[in-house]
Amino acid sequence: MFTKNHIKLDTINSTNEYALSLKETPAFMEGLVVTANYQSGGNGQRGKTWESIANENLLLSVVIEPNININQQSEISKIVALSVCDLLIYLGLNPKIKWPNDILVAKKKIAGILIQNQLKGNKITYTVIGVGLNINQVSFKEYLPIATSLQLCLNTELNIDKIKTQLLQFLSDRIKQFRNGSSQEKEYLSSLFLKDKVAAFESKGLQFMGIIKGVTQSGKLLIQKEDDSIAEFENQQVKYLF
Ligand code: BTN
Which terminus of the chain, N or C, has less C-beta within 10 A? Predict the structure, then answer.
């Protein structure tokens, strides 16, 4: 699926933005892959920036035509998170998905995912999936969650191109599974960070203890509160305190 149409850039503001800038051109179709060695203005979630030292990490965007309803959009994010986990498990690590889109190893962030949808009515026609995976970078600015990389976890330098090919294979396998109708929900839930564990959260300035029970089809996080009620949170409405 991601083998024919690959644009390799040296420096760009953002691979996601570059892919989106091709929207009106024939290159913008399912299977398009854009990578860069360096992003001068990499986009993170919630308007943050994604920083990555040149030539050390994977900066990847791919285009798919999901043709699903907007209320199923979290399915894409689950598939992408699971395929990053597939890769990390294949490399011998034990990754967790911190809802909605952070991939952690030993509570440290190793990868981030940024999904940008193109809509026609209620349908998602195109999706640009951006993945930033820390590979050979060994020192990071102090963010929360603390960052890590494959090299820090595995004590060895890795080949970025090989990792990219492996990740694209896992992603294309997961997309095929989704299109065949096989559910990946169980795997997603078992990879969910802090699932079924008592943890501290903050919402609207109030701290509370709760237990993550799952994620709704539309992508809201379900937290069981101390009074046993289940509360639903949209992205940005709740913060993990860990
Ligand atoms: C996050 O904040 O966790 C999401 C980070 C996503 C970063 C990747 S790097 C490749 C692609 N291009 C971007 O500008 N962002 C994504």
Answer: C
Atom 3, ligand 1: residue with shortest CA distance: 112
Q: Return the best residue to mutate from 13, 38, 114, 131 for the ligand 1 pocket (most ligand atoms within 8 A of CB).
A: 114
DSSP class per residue in 192-223: BTTBTSEEEEEETTEEEEEEEEEE-TT-PEEE
Give the nearest ligand 1 atom to 45 CA: 2
**Atom number in ligand 1 closest to CA 14:** 14
Q: pLDDT tens digits for 162-189?
A: 999 999 999 999 999 999 999 899 999 9
Q: What pLDDT does 174 receive?
A: 97
On whether the pTM is more than 0.90, the answer is yes
Determine contact, residues 200/223, Cβ cutoff 8 Å: no
